[in-house]
């Protein structure tokens, strides 16, 4: 089944793993894609551009139309179903790699360190302030920009206004507010809060880190950034929330679907921007949206986001031509950028000035979502590896479901992180 743009936001505990695995060979079972030929004489260069397979109707036709409109090169677009990340990682080790490829929140650290992704900072130039800063930061490493964001998806908390009003409960601004609200708004027919069939462990683990005012990775880039009193207390609060009367353990759909919320199974649900049209159709204006509430004295509101971005193969045959094409499409052509975000599903344009022009997010809850990304947005650190994600999932499961000590569980995550980060930096 084709993936929607937001699909990588629902994987690996809510966000795609930001640090890629070492590629495991180029034999994918798919036909080998053709590489680009260098320009000869006065002929236009030929460029290959790769996308993952989007689920929304019309996206493939649109990006092929964009490519055909470019008159400085012949651009061929390849649509890639299946395991796109593995396909790109493998291809970049060969001479069959595309000149331009998209990747979630920019290229992986492996790609950057291998010199496979071109530094696009200079190319971006004066256009850099046009992009939402948090989104551009996710596409960067050590101050250099390695991809140009195309469009943005995000997660947030949905709540029923009438249910909270009837219970005399204000929209929760802190985790303690949320813990108190969950039992207060529940009824015999409706739960208080829902975050997925696993009790929210996958999708909320990093939220508790960020909302506690901490970072996934330490400032010195050697271990996790939440093995401290604030991090320990944050996961203790997660256990307290999950134990609250009215916390919904299962529902008609997972956290990423609208059904639990619109069917009245829960008064509050953690989900994504993509369910906004369905929620609006079902509830009209009887709902509101919030970032995840702050956790602890050092806390802050937080939301996660994901943005596929256009990368240039630094080892390609036509690097300069590929760079100029990326500039033309994802920096200069704002009509195409607006269409890409607004015509196929509900997404936030990567450029802040385009948000008011995208009617699905120009006002109401959509505009709030765009504001949340700009003010409170986070994406996985490029050193947040699959091994670290697995370790935090196991640790939080023990804390939430088995009442384990957060300090000792997070210490185990720190040990895993130190070893994996050392491997990456080796």
Automatic annotation (TrEMBL):
One of the record's GO molecular function terms: maltose binding
PROSITE patterns xrefs: PROKAR_LIPOPROTEIN, TAT
Protein's UniProt keywords contain Glycoprotein: no
A GO BP entry: maltodextrin transmembrane transport
Annotated PANTHER family: MALTOSE-BINDING PERIPLASMIC PROTEIN, MALTOSE_MALTODEXTRIN-BINDING PERIPLASMIC PROTEIN
SUPFAM superfamilies associated with the record: Periplasmic binding protein-like II
Keyword Transport: yes
Residues making up the signal peptide according to the UniProt record: 1-18
Record's keyword terms, sorted: Signal, Sugar transport, Transport
GO cellular component labels: ATP-binding cassette (ABC) transporter complex, substrate-binding subunit-containing
Family in the record: Belongs to the bacterial solute-binding protein 1 family.
Name this protein carries in UniProt: Multiple sugar transport system substrate-binding protein
Organism: Microlunatus parietis
